[in-house]
Specification:
elongated
Length: about 100
């Protein structure tokens, strides 16, 4: 099974956000029972990924609105990339400037 954070056109950005939110809830539930530092680091990493994914969703939605007013191949390609994988925050900001 492929990790939903990697490239996959079959898993949308919206689904990735949902998966991250569920993973965070599960990790928090486990952390109530175990207090290891590894679990805390994993939870922190998931929370950071969720934060970047939310920014990515905001950029995605802004480009959807922009495409409605001004359709272009460049915007369509950007939307496809944004919807197909989770990106790092620097890359997301690059798409914001389209």
């Amino acid at each position: 099974m492929m990790c939903p954070f990697n490239f996959s056109p079959d898993v949308t950005l919206e689904s990735r956000l949902e998966y991250l939110a569920r993973a965070i809830m599960s990790a928090k539930s486990c952390n109530l029972r175990t207090a290891g530092s590894g679990e805390g680091e994993f939870l922190h990493e998931l929370e950071e990924k969720l934060e970047v994914a939310r920014i990515q969703m905001q950029v995605y939605q802004a480009l959807v609105n922009l495409k409605a007013a001004n359709p272009s191949r460049r915007i369509s390609q950007a939307l496809a990339v944004l919807d197909s994988r989770l990106l790092d925050v620097t890359t997301v900001r690059d798409y914001k400037s389209l």
